[in-house]
Amino acid sequence: MRDKYIQTAESVTEGHPDKLCDTIADTVLDACLRSDPAARVACEVLDTAGKILVAGEITAAELPDIPALICRTVREAGYGGSNYEVEVITHDQSGDIAGAVSQEEQTGAGDQGILYGYACSETDELLPLPAVLAHRLTRLLTHARKTGAIRGLKPDGKAQVSVEYVFGLPNRVTSVVVSCQHDADKDLEDLRQEILECVITPALRELPPDGDTELLINPSGRFVLGGFEADTGLTGRKLMVDTYGGLIPHGGGALSGKDGTKVDRSGAYMARYIAKNIVAAGLAEKCTVSLAYAIGRAEPVAVDIDTHGTGVYSSAVLEQAVRAAFDLTPSGIIRTLKLDHPMFAQFCNYGHFTYPEAPWEQTDRTELLENVCRAKEAGVSDR
């Protein structure tokens, strides 16, 4: 381990054009699941000046009113009565894929994929500190806009935090970047002071900025034109914001807009669930779980547990325990994590792993994992 290094993570607000697309996609998914828990949904969204396009494969007992969902989501994101055109292009899931997924005895994976989950003991959320701080900044930025604590804020915004580690432990914040859209008549210096007082200071309460911390608030100057009126957003373009801030590997599959048969989403949630339970059980201080699937196959083709040298048990014992304690098939994951319930839009902003009420954030398998590990270790010793 290096004696000293810096790790950086970013986050964006729910009004960022990419996250607005994610929210629309998950709102469509929720509406489909509300009427049909077995719905197959792969929803993609693009937004740009004057246009929002929803496309994808949707097979459901009842198709929702997607234009109405779009308008409601845009309004709730803070864009009010923006003038834009809506286009919806959807069709049923491919029969070949549907046949491979919906088998008589077991649900097969909706696609191939490599999924990673991670947990570490350095925060209460069992997430890396830079990711926690970055999400806290954007949450507070949105809160300040919605409550009027900072007047003149608009929905689009982002934040980035760099933390220096010494011998593996967070030591100090080296830099903070906050960029936020604002009204044309907002004084930039007033805005910077308000962001410092209402957002940065409370967000970094555990590790406050020091005299050498670089604080960059709207470093490019004015940020009046923003959102999807000035930029272009796409579903799945904020993968690192959604997961671990780029601090661990990512398989490349997006999360939002996909039902539980798509292992891009369900496998990533299960990998996080496993890693969090391993760390919460005290079996490791940090843990990366990787799962790999083949389309149409129910069981993963590979399971790997890496505790980065902090594990109480070997990776082989942990892998055996994980396979025994968790059902890793798509149908098992859906059942365990309730992924056929309409709940996804509420978890798609500020990181999918920052919500303690989310099913994949529960630490209810710790005792089972400990018991299985002991049994597996005893079995290895007996041989």
Automatic annotation (TrEMBL):
Name of the top EC class for this enzyme: transferase
Keywords for this protein: ATP-binding, Magnesium, Metal-binding, Nucleotide-binding, One-carbon metabolism, Potassium, Transferase
Single Gene Ontology MF annotation: metal ion binding
Domain S-adenosylmethionine synthetase C-terminal: residue ranges: 225-362
Family: Belongs to the AdoMet synthase family.
NCBIfam families: metK (TIGR01034)
Name of the protein this chain belongs to: Methionine adenosyltransferase
Species for this entry: Flavonifractor plautii 1_3_50AFAA
